[in-house]
Design brief:
By secondary structure, this protein is of the alpha+beta class. The chain has two domains: 9-49 and 136-308, Multidrug efflux transporter AcrB transmembrane fold (Up-down Bundle), CATH 1.20.1640; 56-132, Alpha-Beta Plaits (2-Layer Sandwich). It has 13 helices and six strands. It has helices at residues 2-13, 24-44, 51-54, 70-79, 106-120, 134-163, 166-190, 196-230, 235-272, 276-307, 311-353, 368-379, 386-390; strands spanning 48-49, 56-61, 88-92, 96-101, 127-132, 193-194. A four-stranded antiparallel beta sheet has the order 3-4-2-5. Strands 1-6 form a two-stranded parallel ribbon.
Length: 402
């Protein structure tokens, strides 16, 4: 855990950094692939709408003790009485069988109830039937679409006023559309049933995605305003730092949210069976996961992409890069001068240590300190006066005036 905390601190301070904004083309490609797969599922297989949307009859057999071959037994009992195109049989919990089929009359439903009671050896009172008309599902769909449009309009207005730019609202809406398309695509590819609870889950994940995106955008605004004032970073660099600073927080929040939803989903699929709880858990689990991805890897890169074309941003980035280039050139010159100085000092010192001796008539070697001073006088870019190089004792004396 301490390593993970240190990792988060390094991301926040900028010691480590993921190049999310700079590699936006890669994330655009990943997003495009996900959307393409989702569209293939939507237009290829289509959504599996529940009985609430398509209309039909639902029968439930409770207190069943013998569930061996329940699917075939229930399908045979229904087909012997009515000619239906599709019949879906699922188990709910340990003792309940649910049968969903097409439209039928009340008399046909009563006959099927009696046959199901006989087939599963339960009282007729343990078999319930409900007729659902398609008009109810259409009403739910229309109201859901109205709620979605109102939600998007309000989000656009609030983000535009809060962040003082419509481009943040556009980036957030693109991330929302991405989340909805991917969630619907997963539903289509896996054949998950779309029920009114699923629609509620879709609207819920939109709110979660917007929440996560706003948190990242708020940090982006803070960093970019500071960068514009100090001229220390370009706009993409400041936005990328914001993504890294909120990265660990977004991951932790998503994990905390996914754990209970995942537990509900597993319990529902293994113990409870299909129902409102499972339908809602499916939508929340998929939506939260893809919403976290879009707020980090889609929304912020799109925002940086949209704002890089603004004259003020381009002027700021050019000024920062120009100043940075001058600083790098100055640092290179200083390093080169320091390297020359060290090389010359090393050569003079070696010459002093290696001075020949023996005949007695040779002059003593130059000391290392004197050599260093002499070398530094010429290497630092300033040629010293010959008198200064010879030292104060060797300078000629001035004549006294008479």
């Amino acid at each position: 855990m301490s390593r993970f905390s240190q990792f988060g601190n390094d991301l926040y301070s900028g010691k480590r950094s993921f190049r999310v904004v700079q590699r936006r083309r890669f994330w655009y490609t990943v997003s495009a692939i996900l959307v393409a797969i989702s569209l293939i599922g939507l237009f290829g297989r289509g959504l599996n709408f529940g009985i609430e949307f398509s209309g039909g009859t639902e029968l439930r057999v409770s207190d069943v003790t013998n569930l061996e071959g329940y699917e075939q037994r229930a399908t045979t009992a229904v087909d012997d009485n009515v000619d239906t195109q599709t019949t879906t049989v699922t188990r709910i919990g340990d003792t309940t069988v649910r049968i969903q089929t097409g439209d039928m009359t009340a008399q046909e439903a009563e006959e099927i109830r009696a046959d199901l009671a006989t087939e599963f050896d339960v009282p007729v009172e343990s078999v319930t039937s409900s007729l659902v008309g398609p008009s109810w599902g259409q009403s739910v769909t229309q109201r859901a679409m109205i709620a979605l449009v109102v939600f998007l309009v309000l989000v656009t207005i609030v983000l535009s006023f809060y962040f003082r730019t419509w481009k943040m609202a556009v980036a957030a809406l693109i991330a929302l559309v991405h989340d909805v398309l991917f969630t619907l695509g997963v539903y289509a590819l896996l054949g998950i049933e779309v029920s009114p609870a699923s629609v509620i889950g879709f609207l819920t994940i939109l709110g979660y995605s917007i929440y996560d995106t706003i948190v990242v955008f708020d940090k982006v605004r803070e960093n970019t305003e500071h960068a514009m004032d100090t001229e220390t970073m370009t706009y993409p660099e400041a936005a990328n730092l914001a993504v890294n600073q909120t990265f660990v927080r977004s991951i932790n929040t998503s994990i905390v949210a996914l754990l209970p939803v995942g537990a509900i989903l597993i319990v529902g699929l293994t113990l409870i069976g299909p129902g409102t709880l499972v339908d809602l858990a499916w939508a929340l689990f998929i939506g939260i996961a893809v919403g976290t991805f879009s707020s980090i890897f889609i929304a912020t890169p799109i925002l940086a992409h949209l704002r890089q074309g603004e004259p003020a941003i381009r002027k700021h980035d050019a000024k920062v890069l120009k100043r940075r280039a001058r600083g790098e050139a100055r640092a290179e010159r200083q390093q080169a001068a320091q390297a020359d100085l060290e090389e010359l000092q090393g050569g003079v010192t070696e010459a002093g240590e290696a001075s020949p001796a023996g005949d007695g008539d040779l002059q003593p070697a130059t000391s290392g300190a004197s050599a260093t001073r002499a070398a530094s006088g010429s290497v630092q870019g300033r040629q010293l006066h010959p008198y200064a190089q010879r030292g104060p004792r060797n300078q000629p004396r001035r004549k006294k005036r008479s």
